Amino acid sequence: MTAIDVCIVTFDSADDLAGCLESVEALTHRPLAVQVVDCASRDGSLAIARRFAAATSLPITVVALERNLGFAGGMNAALARGTAPWVLLLNPDARPAPDYLDRLLDASAAAGNGARGVGAATGRLSRLVAGGERPRLDACGMKLTLTWRHLDRGSGRPDRGQHRTRARVFGATGAASLFRREALEDVAIDGRVFDDWFHSFREDAELCFRLQERGWDVVYEPLAAAQHRRRVAPGRRRELEPEINFHSLKNRYLLRVYHQTPANLVATLPFTLFRDLVALGYVLLRERRSLSAYGWLWRNRHALYERRRRIQGRRTRSIEPWFVRAAVTDHRSSS
Question: Nearest Cα to 72, choosing from 172, 203, 232, 188?
Fold first, then answer.
């Protein structure tokens, strides 16, 4: 059987972590090795992870970081401790079904005829809701729009059975997706799979840009089911901590600095410019603490463009078709 590392990053995740680890223990696939990296939680997450590790037969390594490095830094630490050929990235608020990994591996084998093969596989995520609430989708693969938004297909929509076909998609959410280690190592920069500057939010999308640009495919398998509570969503921005909103604003521009080509800049300018002006107006009127994101980008501009040069220099495939496919996906999912 194919060995898989399960990587979980925690930060004040005590409410969710036990349920997540129980779902990992219930996975039918073996062998598994679990890496839990705690980013200096203040709510007992570390103790929960250690108690679970002591009580289960699964090999679980628990790592305590001295400060919060975010999802990006924490996941880099988790990935560095594993050697399995496949890696499941899992949020503490995600609950994969017992056959989740087997379904994703089967889909990867069946779809592996692209430029380099399948670099990632993701399933059909539903929102983890209270009893009596109407089932809603959370993520069915990731798509791009002409405004340079990366959206989870079906996110927040009532579950009416849509997105029931296996498909190649632009990206896979970091909440519960399987990645080929060879692909992660291929797209890593200086040995780091995730860009530490992203810290939190959009870091999974940035990784998928690099996977696509290097010729790795991402497959969506609807038979692989998982639940996800999803604390961070576009409609809840005003409820989030200022630090998360800072990273969200900063990272939307980091994506374009790294990956937007001159031709794409011209083609999408009417859409991105309008969205940028709306974002700036919102920050000026409602969220002034996030203004520092613009200053951060300016201060670090030389280092950012050096990283862009390195990323662009390794491209083997264009991502432009994904901006066109987004409109087709929207049309189909609304029918």
Answer: 203
